[in-house]
Design a protein that fits this description.
This protein is of the alpha/beta class. It has helices at about 1-15, 40-45, 50-70, 80-95, 215-225, 230-235, 270-280, 280-285, 300-320, 330-340, 345-355, 365-375, 400-410, 415-425, 450-455, 490, 515-525, 540-545; strands at about 25, 105, 110-120, 130, 135-140, 150, 155-160, 170-180, 185-190, 200, 205, 210, 245, 255-260, 290-295, 325-330, 380-390, 465-470, 500-505. It has 2 domains: about 30-215, no CATH class; about 230-530, 3-Layer(aba) Sandwich (Rossmann fold). The two termini are about 25 Å apart.
Length: about 550
């Protein structure tokens, strides 16, 4: 067995060292054709001089010219206006000045301007930086040229440099810059396109330009959260501080939260393709807001489920008026999501220990941890669940050589061995034959023979919460004998589901176009929105189908 382990270990490490799912490239923006301003003005904007402050005046002159043309009904001037606005932001950043903090006198060709700015209150963070998205391009398997809406203004990615982050701060987000003139006063307004869809310019009401996907693509390329996947599987306790529920966009009490829960050896980055496609739907953008739960996936999944319950309580404290949540879980994330919508009470505890918690003899940290993991009821703030490739009855992969390798790799500290010992000593007589020589990992709790897996399947999902199943068959069309290569249909199927969608995918059905479209349909259904199915879906390619058995059961 050890020789086989050593043979397969390089392949495992290769999985962890894959290239970035998205890479960002900063380029020179391509200037539009000169229709209102002079070619010389656009050329000067494209090729700045040595003094960024000296470039600001001529940029304002050109912006005033294009703004007047737009106010007069000439929409051909909009590309020039947007380009010049983006270059103005570039020069302000290069010069190290922030008109949003303090007004700035600027000399133009014939006008001495007073440059000022406005910004959303939650952007007033020290060290916040801006990059116009017309200078960004993205490559990689998650890259999508979507999420952009035409209109007036320069979309920007804004992010925190050395500023302090708070619970309500979103490090990376999108804003759109619009420049307006009132006499000699020029104002650079930073607008939140999630909250503002139209803007007034010179007496005209125009749609606001936006780029909804670039901030998420930018953070994935810069922070590389995808690299945490394998590390948090192998050594979960080292990364305890990375477990959190985060908002992907500014909070809006009028929008329904959609919560992504990733699977084993994974991170929220795996939901990027779905997020990008959903954000390309205006009805979903206007109706929903997106949250993501990130956690070390080496723990047995009742533990991150307990963490998620705490995080949902924290989110409720931050936003007590938030609407009920639609939870979407992929693979092991689907199992965590199921625990959020199932009433158990102390039933599993009593089944394991033969007595109520107060009578079990457990105390201290061991009792607290086990109570968090085994005592729970359905959340009252979740109103719909979508399970994608979820091994509700376990995965055979957890019991073969791949599972054995994973179990040998996952490391826990001695404190969790004490929890194991307490658990064993308190088990009821009918479980006395159960042997645990170590603290169980997430892979253990994906086994079809695992006690918790068997026990939780005896409890139905709360009847007032509709739920849906999406799973792959690798394009074979052999359901009910199908499998996505990791999870078989017999495990992912749930009686009582409002809908069940089989897509021609491997285990990554949450990244499959048909799987994403099914989520879009369900979200339209949930909010009572008109739904029209897309007809341009591309079938899964050979590379997607190639990755079947042998992948980790995420």
């Amino acid at each position: 067995m050890p020789n086989r382990f050593l043979t397969l270990l390089p392949a495992l490490l290769f999985v962890a060292s894959c290239s970035a799912p998205i890479s960002v490239h900063e380029n020179d923006a391509v200037p539009p054709a000169a229709r209102v301003t002079s070619p010389a003005a656009l050329e000067r904007a494209a090729e700045p001089g040595d003094n960024a402050l000296a470039d600001i005046g001529p940029l304002l002159d050109a912006l005033r010219t294009t703004g007047r043309a737009i106010a007069g009904g000439n929409d051909d001037a909009i590309p020039e206006y947007n380009y010049l606005t983006a270059r103005l932001v570039d020069r302000l950043i290069e010069a190290g000045v922030r008109p949003w903090d303090q007004s700035l006198p600027v000399s133009g060709g014939s006008v001495d301007y007073l440059l000022r700015g406005t910004e959303p209150a939650d952007l007033k963070d020290p060290g916040r930086e801006f990059i116009p998205t017309d200078r960004l391009s993205f490559t990689g398997r998650y890259a999508r040229d979507t999420g952009r809406t035409a209109g007036i203004g320069a979309p920007l990615v804004t992010f925190l440099g050395n500023g302090k982050r708070s619970e309500k701060t979103i490090p990376y987000r999108t804003v759109t810059a619009v420049v307006r003139f009132d006499g000699n006063q020029a104002t650079v307004d930073l607008l939140d396109p999630f909250a503002t869809q139209e803007v007034s310019l010179g007496g005209r009401t125009l749609p606001l330009s936006a780029d909804f996907n670039s901030p998420v693509a930018y953070i994935l390329s810069k922070d590389r959260i995808d690299e945490l996947g394998l590390a948090r599987l192998i050594n979960p306790t080292r990364y305890d501080d990375t477990a959190r529920l985060s908002a992907v966009q500014p909070y809006d009490p009028d929008k329904i939260p959609v919560l992504f829960v990733h699977g084993l050896q994974d991170t929220p980055a795996s939901f990027a393709p779905m997020y990008f496609e959903l954000m390309d739907d205006p009805a979903i953008r206007d109706t929903y807001q997106f949250w993501a739960f990130s956690y070390p996936s080496g723990y047995p999944y009742p533990m991150p489920a307990a963490i998620l319950r705490d995080e949902l309580d924290r989110m409720r404290e931050l936003h007590p008026d938030h609407k009920d949540i639609v939870i979407i879980g992929h693979s092991m994330g689907g199992l965590i999501s199921r625990l959020m919508v199932t009433d158990v009470g102390d039933g599993i505890w009593v089944k394991f220990f033969g007595k109520a918690p107060a009578e079990s003899g457990l105390s201290g940290e061991s009792r607290e941890l086990l109570e968090d993991a085994l005592l729970f009821d359905a959340r009252r703030d979740i109103s719909r669940a979508i399970f994608i490739s979820a091994p509700h009855r376990g995965s055979e992969l957890a019991t073969n050589i791949i599972g054995w390798i994973g179990i040998k790799l996952v490391r826990f500290p001695a404190t969790l061995a004490n929890v194991r010992d307490s658990f064993i000593s308190a088990l009821s007589l009918d479980a006395s034959g159960m042997q645990l020589d170590r603290f169980p990992s997430s892979i253990d709790t994906l086994s079809p023979s695992n006690r918790f897996v068997k026990a939780i399947n005896e409890y139905p999902i709360r009847p007032d919460i509709p739920y849906h199943s999406i799973m792959g068959d690798r394009g074979k069309g052999d359901t009910p004998d199908s499998s996505d290569g990791v999870v078989a249909y017999w495990s992912s199927h749930l009686d009582g589901a409002v809908s069940e969608k089989i897509v021609p995918s491997n285990h990554s059905a949450h990244q499959n176009p048909a799987g994403i479209e099914e989520v879009r349909r369900i979200l339209h259904l949930h909010a009572g929105l008109p739904y029209r199915a897309r007809t341009d879906l591309e079938p899964a390619g050979p590379e997607e189908m190639k990755r079947g058995p042998g992948r980790w059961p995420r």
